[in-house]
Amino acid sequence: MLQAIHHIAVICSDYERSKKFYTEVLGLEIIREVHRMERKSYKLDLALNGLYVIELFSFPDPPPRPSRPEASGLRHLAFAVSDLDQAVAHLKTHAVDTEPVRIDPYTGKRFTFFTDPDGLPLELYEQ
């Protein structure tokens, strides 16, 4: 039945700020950007390594969504990286703070968390 995850949709409160974060800081590629005038909204389709992964939406005055402490719903979005230290250093050059690096007790892999401009929890997981 299911074949793969098609995309993840993210609603942001400041479209230009989030667009810059996801494209310039995280390096996702723009596939398509659409202004939906009737909804006063943008929809930005983003790809990672050529694969469509994130829809970034803007809406006028979206309500805040609690994400901590451990609110129900989507917990976080994780990105695989080959060199965690390099990825953390890259984020720091863009003034993005990360939590201390942890080790997954089941896999022995290193990981850390950070947030997007709206506080959405994001993870870097070293492969």
UniProtKB/TrEMBL annotation:
**The keyword Metal-binding is assigned to this record:** yes
Query: Would you tell me the protein name for this molecule?
Result: VOC family protein
Matches recorded under PROSITE patterns: VOC
Q: Name one GO molecular function term.
A: metal ion binding
- Superkingdom of the source? Bacteria
What lineage does UniProt assign to this protein's organism? Bacteria, Pseudomonadati, Bacteroidota, Chitinophagia, Chitinophagales
- Signal peptide range equals none
UniProt-listed InterPro entries: Fosfomycin_Res_Enzymes (IPR051332), Glyas_Bleomycin-R_OHBP_Dase (IPR029068), Glyas_Fos-R_dOase_dom (IPR004360), VOC_core (IPR037523), YwkD-like_dom (IPR037478)
Q: What are the record keywords, sorted?
A: Metal-binding
Q: Which residues form the VOC domain?
A: 4-127
Q: Which SUPFAM superfamilies match?
A: Glyoxalase/Bleomycin resistance protein/Dihydroxybiphenyl dioxygenase (SSF54593)
What is one Pfam family matched by this protein?
Answer: Glyoxalase
